[in-house]
Structure formats: structure tokens, C-alpha cells
Amino acid sequence: MNWKTAFRSIYYEGAPEPDDIVLLPERTGMLIIDVQNTYLERPDPAELQDEERRRYDRWTPFHQRMHGLVVPRTAKLLAAFRQHGYHRLFARIGCHRRDGLDRSLSQKMPGWNNVLLPKDEWSAQIVPALAPEGDEIVVTKTTDSALTGTNLRLILHNLGIDTVVCCGIFTDQCVASTVRSLADESFRVLVVEDCCAAGSNELHHAELVIMNMIYCHVVSSDELLAMMARRHAL
Predict the structure, then answer these.
(1) For residues 166 and 197, is the Cβ–Cβ distance under 8 A?
(2) Residue 25: inside a domain
């Protein structure tokens, strides 16, 4: 099974296979979403109480996926985009006021998503393994969608980008929100499934099935690298 037949929902059972993907460096941008220090830091488990330790253990598969799969594969893909001259962009959550008053309602709601990340603090920065280089563009957002909460739409338009390759976290939250916004603006969108993660693998897989074929095409990093290799072998 490959990207043309994988991650199919009930809506697309029996639908024709999509056309081959053609990636033009001048019209394609990689967008890395919210892979920030705050989401990869963890407390010392020896210092946790029972309920805190239960939550710690629940998040262990996410951290294993991020360190063992998502970050290294995203770094490999980013290196290929740099080598072949594709556009590279980053989105991150970061409020402009230290009290976070400028955040959207979704980031002020009580619970896990109530995230306060002043833009200049360490916790808000992109992880070192994926740090932007040179004049690579970083947009700072106070919303889930990188398109809604920034001038990213204008930047993509000015750069001549019509195809956006999305990686990052969380698949079912900021990645999904960004993908839907891009699709509504008629961008062609690819989501790299092994360069994304959700709070659980079940949520990750379910969201990919929901988005695939209508809002984006879901591909693996190996499939994408193979497409690029064929393109640059011509």
C-alpha cells in the first residue's frame, strides 16, 4: 500500500487514485508547525506524585515518537529541501504579551490547550535539531491555524508557493487546523505522516484518515524523498 491508497476513509472507498505528485522547487514550501521546546521537555519522573506519574506515562509514546521518528525524519526532509532549493518555513505558537492576553480563545480555554508561550522565551523556540537557518521564514501565531493567525497567506502568495508540505505537531490540532485553512485557500497540501505526531498514535492516525484525499494527500517522508529524487535526477 502506498500514499495513493493508504489512509482512506469511508468517503473515499473506491475513489480513483490521485495523480502523481509533481514538486517544483520554486512553487513548493515545507512548513514545520509548532515543534517547540515546550512540547519536548519533561519533568523528572522520580519527583512526580501518582496522578502526575500516570499522565507522564500516558505521554511517553508521544515523546518516543517525537525523538525516535518525527524529529530525525523531519530533519532529513528539511536537509533535502535545503539542498534542492525548495522554500522552507516555520510556524510556532508565541504570544506577544507576557500575560498572553493577545492569544486566541482556543489558547485561553481551561485545560491542556491553555498554553502561555511568550515569544522570546526558551520554551517558545523551535527545537535545536530543526532550528531555522539564514533567512528561512518563521511566523509566530496566537491561533491554531498558521494561516489564520499570521501573514503566512501573504508570504506564500508573494513567494509564488502553491504547494505546502506540512510537518509538525499536533496532528489533530494545529497541523489539522493549518491544513484545512490552506485547503480552503486552494493550496495543494501534503502531510508527511511520519513527520507528525498527536497526543496518541490513535488520534494521529484518525486525523490523517479524516484529512486525506479532501484537505490534503498524506505521504511518508520516504515517498516524498523519492519523488524529489526522481525530480532532480532528470
Answers:
(1) no
(2) yes
